[in-house]
Amino acid sequence: MTTKGYIKDYPRPQFVRNEWMNLNGEWDFRFDDQNVGEIEKWHEQLTGTHKIKVPFTYETEASGIGLEEFHERVWYSRSVPIPKEAAGKRVILHFQAVDYIAKVWVNGELAGRHQGAYAAFSLDITPYLTFGADNVITLKAEDSDDCTQPRGKQRWTKDNFECFYVQSTGIWQTVWLEYVEEQRLDSVKITPDLDRDRVSFDFRVRGLETAAGSLRLEAIVTLKDHHVKTVSLVADRPRFSVEVDLVHEANGPWKKAFWSPAQPNLYDVEFVLYLDEVVIDRVFSYFGMRKVSIEKGKVLLNNVPIYQRLMLDQGYWPESHLTPPSEDALIADIDYMLEMGYNGVRKHMKIEDARFLYWCDVKGLLVWSEMAATFEFHDDAVENFTQEWLEIVRQQYNHPSIITWVPFNESWGIPYILHDQRQQKFTESIYHLTKSIDPYRPVITNDGWEHTISDIITLHDYVETGEGFLKRYAGNKDAIVSKEIPCNQWKYALADGYEYKGQPIMITEFGGIAFESDKGWGYGHQVRTDEEFLNRFEGLIQAIKSVDYICGFCYTQLTDVQQEINGLLTEERKPKFPMDKIRGINLA
């Protein structure tokens, strides 16, 4: 079951137009180790030394290059035919993700710049185009091993180490363009209000100042092909909002179609912009009626407590690293998690492809969206992190599957947060900035330990056995949250100066069990047999479930990743055990 506007491989499935062009494929490519490209005007004519298959980075085999050593500057170029019939429209060039600083030229003219490896960006390239001819798009990507830029699990040394892997440089998600009118819908922020059976649409419209007539915007809401409501508004301002009551006499059984893992109901919505009754823009989207709240130490979904069984997923593939090899590969990972009895995923240290979030929306997999960390606390890191995080929250806001924001993990980038008030205030500021955009989802300020202000207290502990877990946690809630004892072997649940205020408590990293091998590592002693693994796995799951104040968990992890061999699947997505055995333990 897909949404009404779904197009396979469409890179932005929550805001769909039918007229678009995928620019993935072969591009000319060149390294610029001496930083001479701009001086020598490569943006006017790039002489490529390689061919690269976009959107795979040069470090991957899928790119056709497969060189893992770091290069700070790389260039891309390709010719794009722009049809004569498109004259009079605006042509928007979209990059879903470029790591880290992107500068874009069209026919030798600078069209724009963007900083940030994980947020999408768009450029109106109309002024630089020749319609009815081939046009040259050139991009320079600048990366670094600087730990003040959000980098997540990308290494900043020559070789992989610990849990850090080969870096990703340049274009790593889809490049595409679309043709739109001068007057068009720019964005819609969709906010469900489950308790009142209403949904709010916050619109941004472009081109009002040049409209030769009156503009009207229509929103048509349907559910499973049943018409629910149509609203029509005069579009006389660049920003305006409407609240739509989803209940009326014709609704019948559709009144309470909530979104949840058990029933991931999605409302389709079609936005149509008219200029004097002529359709000039049509966008397909969707939303889910769901509510996330916290009461009495529990996380509630749609006003009912939910026990979260999450899987930690880093989203790496052996041939393509951070870039999913296909949309089908994303779907397969989601299906594996659901088949093994997990109802959610903590997407770790990565902002995932929007198509992944789409399929989580469709299939009903809860998502914790987690920012890629910096690894140094500095004014530059504060600025880099804040700018990109706010872009990401805005871009991902409409996905009903996302139920938690996780800006920080394990004190990465804030190493002295236990005592350092500057680092503590930084996390507080990100918490409040996130809440200013989205007050409806929980925010976890430092997943794992040393929380400041946080809506959920999340703890990481790789204790090996269920018995060891119970010895540390059973009956010890007060001692842990008051910092009488650490939450694992060496870290405290809260930073200095912060008190427990009754938040839900979850174990959001544990397990990481690996089979005996000299090719990589897992957490604790490696096991030799399936029976040894399953006994240890089951012991940990049962122990966590038996502690009454713990309301969910996140197991490490879905797949092996390079030198880390503690996945339930191999890197190639081959299950190490029958899925039904894992599912049986999780759901027991």
Task: Give your account of this protein's structure.
With 588 residues, the chain is α+β, with helices and mostly antiparallel strands. It folds into 3 domains: 20-180, Galactose-binding domain-like (Jelly Rolls, Sandwich); 184-287, Sandwich (Immunoglobulin-like), CATH 2.60.40.10; 307-587, TIM Barrel. The protein is built from 8 helices and 29 strands. The chain has helices at 327-339, 354-363, 379-396, 421-437, 466-473, 477-481, 530-546, 579-587, and strands at 20-22, 25-31, 50-54, 73-82, 90-95, 98-99, 101-106, 109-115, 121-124, 133-142, 170-171, 175-180, 184-193, 198-206, 215-223, 226-234, 239-245, 267-275, 278-287, 292-295, 298-301, 304-305, 308-313, 344-347, 366-370, 402-406, 457-460, 505-511, 550-556. The strands form 7 sheets. A 7-stranded parallel β-sheet has the order 26-25-24-23-29-28-27, covered by helices on one side. Strands 3-2-4-10-7-8 form a 6-stranded antiparallel β-sheet, with no helix packed on it. A 4-stranded antiparallel β-sheet has the order 1-12-5-9, with no helix packed on it. Strand 23, helix 1 and strand 24 (344-347) form a beta-alpha-beta unit. Helix 1 (327-339) packs across helix 2, helix 5 (466-473) runs parallel beside helix 7 (530-546) and helix 7 (530-546) runs parallel beside helix 8 (579-587). The longest helix has 18 residues, at 379-396. The protein is globular. The mean pLDDT is 96.
